[in-house]
Amino acid sequence: MASTLSGTNMPQPATFAPSKDDILGALGFYFGQPVSPEKLKDYNEHHAATYHFPDAYVGSNTKIRDTINNLVEKQPQTWHTTIGLPFRRIEGTVVEWDEIRFDVRLMQRVPYQGVSRMTTSMKRKHRDRVVRRGLGMLIESDFYTTPVGREHFSNQIQSIRYCVQETCNYDVLFAYLTTHNYDFAYDRSHNVRPRRNIPRRCSTRSRCMRSPRRKETDLTRQSRTASSA
Questions:
Q1: For residue 192, is pLDDT > 70?
Q2: Which residues of 108-139 are buried (b: 16+ CB within 10 A; e: fewer)?
Q3: Which secondary structure element, helix H or strand E, spans residue 124, and what is its range?
Q4: Which of 147, 156, 154 is nearest to 3 (CA)?
Q5: Contact 12, 43 (CB under 8 A)
Q6: Distance CA 11, CA 13 (A)
Q7: What is the mean pLDDT of residues 11-15?
Q8: How far apart are CA 154 and CA 6, in angstroms?
Q9: Which residue did the predictor score with more confidence, 192 or 203?
Q10: The whole model's pTM is what?
Q11: In the chain, what is the greatest distance between 2 CA atoms, to the nearest angstrom?
């Protein structure tokens, strides 16, 4: 017999003392196959009656991982992970890519049968590692025995999904704000862009840092004048 919660068929817990098969069936529904199946031989009816969590499920759980991945990838997402920097599945934890730059310049005049200047290019190979981040949750060993516990477990999974999405949104915005603008650097190095369009942070900062010194100098002069008088 099954009950429906949030559109998912969940096993109905036993009314009286649950058996070993009832506990293992409920745990298999939520956590999938155990990490160490050989440890289930030590799980007996006494453990089931006291809702003892089997040691066979201690470790990395792939079903919860796949559930959170499906919630993140298949549910409606924001602009950051759909257009800005969409999700891409990779193999391993190391990412490699090539960077090729071509020197864009104006063509110069060449005399008849003269030798033209060659274009220059540069190729670089980059390598980076994927940053590992984690987030855990705390659940009761017998959460599946009550509707409130099952709903709380579902809400915790959804909360982790929102945390993953917010973290990805932050990383996308940080990448856009800190990325290198090749066109702007080229215009600045070749004096193509007007200087009034280039922010002068250094001059403004030095000007702001010098202003308190000038005020201190004026106050010092006033104090000296007062003392001499």
A1: yes
A2: eeeeeeeeeeeeeeeeeeeeeeeeeeeeeeee
A3: strand 121-129
A4: 147
A5: no
A6: 6
A7: 53
A8: 9
A9: 192
A10: 0.62
A11: 101
